[in-house]
Amino acid sequence: MMRSVAPGESIQRALDEAGPGARIVLAEGVYAESVWIRHSGVTLTGAGLGRTVLVPGDGVPPDVPSLHDATADVVSGVTVYGQAVSDVRVEGLTVRGFSGAGVYAHSVDRVTLHEVAAEDNGVWGVYLRESTACRVTGCRARGSQYGGAALSFCPLSDHLVAGNETHDNAFGVFIDNSSGVRAVRNTCHGNAIGMMLLNQVYDGEPDGGVTDCLIAGNDLHGNGLASGAEPDGLGAAGPPISGVGLALIGTHRVVVVDNHIHDNHPSGESVMGAAFVMSSSQGWGGDDALDNHVSWNRVHGNTPLDYLLGVDLERQHFAANTADKGDPSDARGWRL
Is the dihedral of CA 279, 284, 288, 292 positive or negative? Predict the structure, then answer.
């Protein structure tokens, strides 16, 4: 069933009345409400980025699940959550100014976000958690306290994060204890860290790990914001980070190829001392970085270092990477 909605009409009412398999088409304009997609097979389509805009209003669906690890008064723009929900697509709209996430999906099988702009949302831009076959393509995310685009505790499946632009977030793209992710052709700039893959175990969370991912063809530059330095500030829950393009922390079997990591300069304290960092997370309940393949990457013009490899080099494969300065300076597969 297809339903059309115009500004001033309720998106939530259309979703609830149409039920599973519905296509909800939003006309150009501003809609002051948050919405909850709780049925399978739903497509929510706007008129395009900046043309259909969702902003906070009085319309909050009753009993909508709260954003994970947030208080009940935190409101997300679009929530996709429900028992056995699958095959949901959100596309062609801007979600702006919510106190939670722009788009929050939890426990969904096959969720796609395409050409969605998440702007100035309080916690996350796009946050997909404990879901399978996630697709985030052609999206834009800026101005979030934590990740612009994040996959968190998403189990090994065919995930795709492609062709997105993220800036002015703590983490541009955050692959948090998620596996099977292909992150390709993204542009991450003006964040504290452009892209981070983190294997770390948390009390009360599902099993973690980051394995079998592909990081290819990304442009990670100009990431110089400072996060983790101020209570309730940018990236407040994490350690101080600034000036990092790409970090692999405790990852296994991740392929990093043909990325351009350049002109990243810290503006504050950082626990990561280079634009490209590989390290263990064993001290945080994770693991050593093992069996990663890093090839044909260009890492130049960064401070204080282009790369810092705090891992067992014999358990990684490096080939044909170029940089200006790094540690160790004689690492095999790096040409200075």
Answer: negative
